[in-house]
Design a protein that fits this description.
This protein is α+β, with helices and mostly antiparallel strands. Helices cover 26% and strands 23% of the residues. The relative contact order is 0.22.
Length: 329
């Protein structure tokens, strides 16, 4: 079966539930004059994360994670982190103490687009919305991807139905700006962030292989056995991970040097890049790419008390052939 025919067969199956829920919600809406929110989020423009046409688009536009030195100076970093407490429209807190201001990020992006666009790529400016959040955290981030949550997407269907012409984008790139490190040590050590070769073209997930980390503070879906749970990983070239590779032991030297998470959690994964967390040194990576941080450089004993960063998320339009396929189905 050709790729397009195969995607169409998957699409009919994966979309059936969403179409039913979309129609049911619209059918039972009692007051058609209810004032709708005036703001748009990235989810209003996107195909579902499990849509095979969307997955194909993401596969085509994957690329290696990158980091750049000394892009933002101290005055810019000071301005950016304080902006969160003046202009963000909403804030939430995880039970581990992580505070996440969000909203109005399009404005902070536009102020620094002259620096961000050349790094993310020329298509960054074409993203219909720039999402993301600030994060102020006392702890490392465990293994996860940063796509979108299914509930956030589903909630946009009432305003923008699934086949609306505006829904022609998928997740693409995420951009992190480390802003500051809080520590009682003279030497500031923000630890590292590790990016893996594996991309998971699906809804946002936390990966807790072996279930060895208890009480994870996350609103993402949690998987404890990547292969048994049916997760399908791809590499940066869009090639699927062979079934037999999900049980390959992780590199022990890499684990000893950079990680303070259970070894079992990284089973089957391969490191793409390890970058130091340094304020002013931004990073770009695929939105569906697996990544994790540590609590400070292992062995140095200089863990940070807290650190703050800004995550910006960018969408990319469907390629022309995929756009045609999507709106004809």
């Amino acid at each position: 079966m050709e790729d397009r025919e195969y995607r169409e067969s998957l699409l009919n199956e994966s979309n059936s539930n969403w179409l039913h829920r979309d129609a049911k919600k619209r059918e039972h809406k009692k007051d058609r004059s209810v004032k709708m929110r005036s703001d748009m989020r990235r989810e209003h423009h996107m195909l579902a994360m499990d849509n095979p046409i969307g997955i194909e688009n993401q596969r085509r536009h994957s690329s290696k994670s990158q980091c750049w030195d000394n892009i933002f100076d101290e005055d810019e970093l000071d301005y950016i982190w304080k902006w969160a407490f003046k202009h963000c429209a909403k804030v939430r807190m995880n039970r581990n103490g992580t505070v996440l201001p969000a909203g109005n990020l399009e404005k902070i992006y536009k102020e620094f687009a002259h620096k961000i666009d050349p790094l993310v790529g020329p298509q960054a400016t074409l993203s219909p919305e720039v999402g993301g959040n600030y994060f102020l955290t006392p702890q490392q981030y465990g293994l996860h991807n940063d796509s979108i949550r299914p509930g956030d997407w589903e909630n946009t269907l009432e305003r923008v139905p699934m086949k609306d012409p505006r829904r022609k984008y998928t997740c693409w790139k995420n951009f992190i700006i480390p802003l500051w490190i809080g520590s009682h040590h003279d030497e500031l050590d923000g630890g590292q962030i590790m990016f893996f070769e594996e991309r998971h073209h699906d809804w946002a997930h936390v990966y807790n292989g072996g279930g060895l980390v208890p009480n994870i503070a996350s609103v993402y879906k949690i998987s404890t056995d990547y292969h048994a749970d049916g997760l399908k990983f791809h590499d940066r070239n869009g090639d699927p991970k062979p079934d037999e590779d999900y049980k390959i032991p992780f590199d022990k030297e890499m684990h000893k040097k950079w990680c303070n998470t259970p070894y079992k959690r990284l089973e089957g994964l391969t490191v793409e890049n390890v970058f130091d967390w340094v304020p002013g040194n931004p990073m770009s990576f695929d939105a569906v790419q697996l990544h994790a941080t540590n609590q400070g450089t292992p062995g140095k004993g200089q863990n940070y008390n807290a650190k703050m960063g800004l995550l910006l998320t960018f969408l990319i339009e469907l390629d022309d052939d995929l756009k045609e396929e999507w709106f004809l189905v």
